[in-house]
Amino acid sequence: MLGCFTLPDAEPGAADQLLTDLAENLSRQGLRVVGALQVNSGGSADCACDMDLRVLGDTGPMIRISQSLGPGAVACRLDSGALQTAAGRVSARLTEGADICILPKFGKQEALGLGFRDVIAEALHEGVPVLIHVPIEQRAPFDAFAGELAEWVDPAGLAEWSQRAVRQGKAA
Fold first, then answer.
1. How far is CA 56 from CA 46, 75, 168, in A?
2. What span, in angstroms and rounded, lies between the C-alpha atoms of 22 and 58?
3. Which InterPro entries match (predicted)?
4. Domains identified in the chain and CATH numbers
5. pLDDT for 8-41, tens place per residue?
6. How far is 120 from 101, CA to CA, in rounded Å?
7. CA 27 to CA 39: how far, in whole Å?
8. Residue 163 and residue 33 in contact, taking contact as beta carbons nearer than 8 Å
9. Which of 165, 146, 25 is nearest to 98 (CA)?
10. Are the beta carbons of 31 and 164 closer than 8 angstroms?
């Protein structure tokens, strides 16, 4: 199962906080939650915030996926190599067993076939449900990738969808 949602009019970071709260709640219920959560912090003169990924179930450090490009820079600040490192660490957690995989978003890197795209496919192949945020601007590339596998979920119903997906995964 591939659950996805969008938050079209939300404040920046709202989807990250929603997924963090959900992952913590599911973990408290005893579920093996793997994936990654984005943590936005601080900021500096040349960027609005620093972006890190916390790999769930991994004792390693958070991975900084943003890079400072200097004042006045207009290019993407994403460190694509760091994102691939995070994807590799999530993949390693999948091989140890999981009830559900939560990923921060289907972004530009995933649209290009990179980032967490292979992790999504790996989890689904292993029968592990995946939940991911899809920003509105990535809807078309996500639809092309996921096709009929995608199940759009109302953000208010993410916990219920997750519980149902885990039950169905265990029954299969």
1. 29, 29, 22
2. 18
3. DUF2478
4. 2-39+79-171 (3.40.50)
5. 888 888 999 999 999 999 999 999 999 999 998 7
6. 8
7. 18
8. no
9. 165
10. no
Ordered DSSP codes for the chain? -EEEE--TTPPTTHHHHHHHHHHHHHHHTT--EEEEEEEEE--BTTBS-EEEEEEET--SPPEE-B----TT--S--B-HHHHHHHHHHHHHHHTT--SEEEES---HHHHTT-TTHHHHHHHHHTT--EEEE--GGGHHHHHHHHGGGEEE--GGGHHHHHHHHHHHHHH-
| pTM reported for the whole predicted model | 0.90
Q: Which two structure tokens, joined as six digits, stand for 2? A: 């591939």
